[in-house]
What does this fold into?
Amino acid sequence: MKNLIQLLAALALLQACTTAPSAPSPCTGQSTPTERLFLQQVTATSAIIRWRGEAASVCIGQSADSLTQRFDASTVNGHMTAQLTGLQADTRYFYAIGGAGTTDPSFTFTTAPEPGQVPADGNTHIWLLGDSGTQTEQFMGRFTHPGEAEIVKQGFLKYNADQADNEPVDLLLLLGDNAYLEGTDAQWQGAYFDIYPKIIRSVATWPTIGNHEMGAGPLDVCLFRPMPQCEEGPVMMAVGGISESADPASYDSNGDGPDEGGLPYLSIFDLPSRGEAGGVPSGTEQYYAFDYGNVHVVSLDSQLSNRDDAQRRAMRDWLVDDLSRNTLDWTIVIFHHPVYSKGENHDSDVEQAEIDMRETFAPVFEDYGVDLVFNGHAHSYERSWYLHGHHGKSDTFSAAQHAELNADGDPAIGQGEESYQQISSGSGKDDKAIYTVAGSAGKADEPHPCKEGQRLGCTLPDWLMHPAHRTFDPTVSGARPHGIARRGSVVVDATAKTLTSRFIDEHGEVLDWFVIER
Amino acid sequence: MIRLLGGLSALLLSLHGYGHAPDETTFARLSKLMEAAPDSQSLNLQRAALQIRSGHLAEAEQDLAQAARLGDSRQTGLQRGLLAMARSDHHMAIAPLTDYLLVHPDDPTALLNRARARTRSGETEAAWRDYEAFFRVSSQPQPGDYIAAATLLDATGDTEPALNLLDEGLTTLGKQPQLLRMAIELDQRLGRLSAALERSSALGVLLRHSGDWALTHARLLAANGQGDERQQVLERARNQLRNLRPTPARQALLARLEQALSRRAAPLPG
It folds into this structure.
């Protein structure tokens, strides 16, 4: 009898539990359209969603049909910003801007794995875009590269469908010059938000500052072309990408002096200056680091901090601290100005920003276990041998001294039997890195040889001939002895044992690849 | 006129192709523009800036002299100051930077550079006033600015104000290793070992108790008479490093840790 009473009581309790009204869902709002929508700082436990529009909240959940957690947003630097916290690692979430209880399943993102862990699918799939911002590039009122960034994107999507099983991108890394010509807010809209809307609402973007993010220098058109307006004073023409300032507050979009809002890049992106995403706090959003599973990524500032001795020294010391602390499997560094390049108009033997980055930072990369370095700036593709100790000009490069060699004594290519080993068999240490210039995600330079005495807007005889970069088969379209003049982007895949980098052209073809094993 | 427009068209095409050229190309661009507009102060100033940055100081001086003749000479003050600093003639940089600041009193670049020029010239009080003004007007001060200003204060014996400035920086920028390291060093120099150890513990969290941090922290522990703790910190760091992938930096650090471990902390006097 006692047992029967207990059974009945338990049944009653069970019924009460199953019929009791649950707390009302906080997600009763309307899904609201946005002008721009993108993710920032997606970590194992948190994420930031930013947008422009009326909505002031977002609802999330692990099913698109049942969003149950609501986060309010606040306005930060002209964007609604919702900080999502308390998330689970390596977990797919759906979301609705405006706080609706259901959503289109394409509004989704996946949190990072716990630091040190590989994602559930075993691979971190990274897409890198250098100098992609050409959709907004204009010359005398005419768009000069319309659709070219889109073509590169389509090439990547084709590659991803045909050769990568449509694996979702985990990280989007921007290598600078992602909004031509001056990096204004409107140019970011046209060259970034409008070109990659579905990708950037599903994956966090991690950028670096290029010269075209840093505005324009002024020139007075009246000096060359008298016009009626000149009677009233100078008519200034802005030339994008020539700022030499180390101060982001000096950002000038149109040649008439510093803009009130400062550098748009720093207003648009919300970057982890305080170690929010796993890197050592830098104290500035101009350079930062983060962890994603077993991958550590560092974004350096070759445009501003690099121009000033005190700032460069502080950035270098921070980098040493950050890399000293890092124990993850793979380390990737991004910044805009290439340490080795013979691109059109960009020669790392000449350009001071490139020389400073090479002399100050390349030794740190090699001493502290960096695996891959990616840059943009030159609108072509160049990829180095597996390097150590080459910090001078191109004429000081010696393959025997500076590159990992194969059994024949030639520089190893990084493919098949010549795959690179993270711990070099020669030195017994992790002391080498690969340097890639990938600045053709929006346009590619073309051969047009300089006439005698001409060094401007033309290709010099040593174009794409930096000896620290790998050689290419000259019969490949666009190939030069040490580079490829083709539009494209880079995909990096990081597993527990391998790090693979591929250059994908606009047709979805792989034009170069290499593997580092551990 | 037709010839001029034709020339202009070619120049604009060059500008477009230039987009973002190296200094060498920019010289060519600016030189062509200056041929067409020899009376432009702004072009002379732009080319002077590039000449300075590329180390062509005599050429920069010529451009600046020409720029000074073409308008308000105070507008050339920033570049004249930078030219003097490029020649390591820091004292000579002060006057032109002052001229420029008369026209642009809140220009952070001019303030920062005058602070540096005055520092190198031994005008420490005036340099500090420039740093103060800089921190007032700069919307985005960087870690390197705080370190440079704190170094100036400390060098003049104002260690306490230097610490205050670093704390201000740590509040503005958030906890950051370079500022913390300097604050630890200053605390230690002032004999505030417990404060230094407290900061060092915070730094240890930031750096996940890396080997580099362990060496610094161990020195503080030894100075505080905590020999056993010192030994533990060093051993933990050594054991951690032994399990990590070897890099040149880690191997060098391991050698330093082994060396430190081989020496016990000196016994406390008395």
In short: Chain A touches chain B through 75 residues (CB under 8 Å).
